[in-house]
């Protein structure tokens, strides 16, 4: 099996796989997963985790096997136990509930989500109506909205803009969930600005770099792909968005799977080019299983379509870093680089 790096618009091989890069783990997911692993290594099982640490079945199952216990809320955790907040963040009310139970908390919230929380707090302090573009019920949206519940209203899509009502059209700002479709978010903003010409922007992009990079890579390969397979769980917002982006960018069809075993071989009938990518909470081993499955069906040539190189790395949560130091352990860890198990030959 050969892996090359190429531009899909010039490739002419048949029965090929276009493998998106970047794909898979982002810095925030890596930090959160490592936080649970190191907490288990340092303190032993059980370590409690509020909600799923990241939205990926394989990751959650693997950590559960090691002794992590996933709960829906703080009242399920024994008083005085150790609790990790997921990468999606929590509201001040959740933090207060944890403190009331004397829980030893480790905050694994992605720093890019924390940035959005701080924006909500700042704009609420200045008495703005805050329009949070995101998906109602998603943990990240619940956490962000919880920072200023009297000022925040969630806008799920462009179609909801007509229902938005604010106190003062001159004091309105938008912020967003970090894992949305860039194009759909900008369309929502466009419609909001038509309705509220004084609408203010957040100080910087809220949609995270990893979400944007993965969407750009899919857009590049999608026009050449008969089928795009996105590896990611159903509750992973950024994975679901990748399916939508692939279809909008011209893919013949696009599907999401948690693992290779979920691929319906009927999807591959008549296809000569299959695009493959994965959401930001997906370990590379799951992508490689998909590549092997496709190879067994004649898609033996794998061409990497790279649109960016990511080297961002976040430090571990400070509570955990202090614990590691007290235990005489190093905070440093090897970065989980996105790489195939096959040789990559630039062309």
UniProtKB/TrEMBL annotation:
Cofactor: binding comment: Binds 1 [4Fe-4S] cluster per subunit.
Keyword Repressor recorded: no
Catalytic activity annotation: isopentenyl diphosphate + 2 oxidized [2Fe-2S]-[ferredoxin] + H2O = (2E)-4-hydroxy-3-methylbut-2-enyl diphosphate + 2 reduced [2Fe-2S]-[ferredoxin] + 2 H(+); dimethylallyl diphosphate + 2 oxidized [2Fe-2S]-[ferredoxin] + H2O = (2E)-4-hydroxy-3-methylbut-2-enyl diphosphate + 2 reduced [2Fe-2S]-[ferredoxin] + 2 H(+)
Active site: 140 (proton donor)
Annotated [4Fe-4S] cluster binding sites: 26, 110, 208
Binding of (2E)-4-hydroxy-3-methylbut-2-enyl diphosphate, residues: 55, 88, 138, 178, 236-238, 281
InterPro entries, sorted: LytB/IspH
Keywords of this entry: 4Fe-4S, Iron, Iron-sulfur, Isoprene biosynthesis, Metal-binding, Oxidoreductase
Binding site for dimethylallyl diphosphate: 55, 88, 138, 236-238, 281
Listed GO MF terms: 4 iron, 4 sulfur cluster binding; 4-hydroxy-3-methylbut-2-enyl diphosphate reductase activity; metal ion binding
Positions of region (Disordered): 325-347
Superkingdom per UniProt: Bacteria
EC category: oxidoreductase
A biological-process GO annotation: isopentenyl diphosphate biosynthetic process, methylerythritol 4-phosphate pathway
Gene3D superfamilies linked: 3.40.50.11270, 4-hydroxy-3-methylbut-2-enyl diphosphate reductase, catalytic domain (3.40.1010.20)
EC number: 1.17.7.4
Cofactor(s), names only, from the UniProt record: [4Fe-4S] cluster
Annotated positions binding isopentenyl diphosphate: 55, 88, 138, 236-238, 281
Positions with biased composition (Basic and acidic residues): 328-339
Pathway entry: Isoprenoid biosynthesis; isopentenyl diphosphate biosynthesis via DXP pathway; isopentenyl diphosphate from 1-deoxy-D-xylulose 5-phosphate: step 6/6; Isoprenoid biosynthesis; dimethylallyl diphosphate biosynthesis; dimethylallyl diphosphate from (2E)-4-hydroxy-3-methylbutenyl diphosphate: step 1/1
Family: Belongs to the IspH family.
Reported function: Catalyzes the conversion of 1-hydroxy-2-methyl-2-(E)-butenyl 4-diphosphate (HMBPP) into a mixture of isopentenyl diphosphate (IPP) and dimethylallyl diphosphate (DMAPP). Acts in the terminal step of the DOXP/MEP pathway for isoprenoid precursor biosynthesis.
Protein name: 4-hydroxy-3-methylbut-2-enyl diphosphate reductase
